[in-house]
Here is the input.
Amino acid sequence: MNLLILLLAALVPLVIGFIWYNPKVLGTAWMNASGLTEDKLKGGNMIVIFALTYLFSLMAATVISAIVIHQSAIYSTLANEEGFGIAGSAIQNYIDDFMKNYGQNFRTFKHGMLHGGITAIFFVLPIVGINALFERKGFKYIMIHVGYWFISLMLMGGIICQFS
Here is the structure.
């Protein structure tokens, strides 16, 4: 896991959010679907909101990293084996050989985008959808938020998969 790439990928939701939720793009539709007004939105502490958004985005980037980089599974599968992490041990030699032969398989921007999109559809959509149902929000509300996360997670996945 490359921390610098995760820190960079965590900026994606902020950048996409500035565009997506801009009143000239989908901001007005989002406010209407959410039942918000410009006056209600003025009351928030933007420093706290952006700081927490970045922190939550960093958490999401960490999870997306495990989803888009398939080779990381070898470490969790073998972590309890005797000699794990010890240079020259049989298990560490096996891991090193595996990574030398297969460590770059499926490590492209396109592959990361695919898994980011799948994550948005099969994870974000159900979560946002369930919340929206109980909040009595409509289809438009769901699609605005899921669309935002679809684009954000695709770009995050692509960046992480290609450059980590």
In short: Residues 33 and 140 are 7 Å apart (CA to CA). The chain has a mean pLDDT of 96.
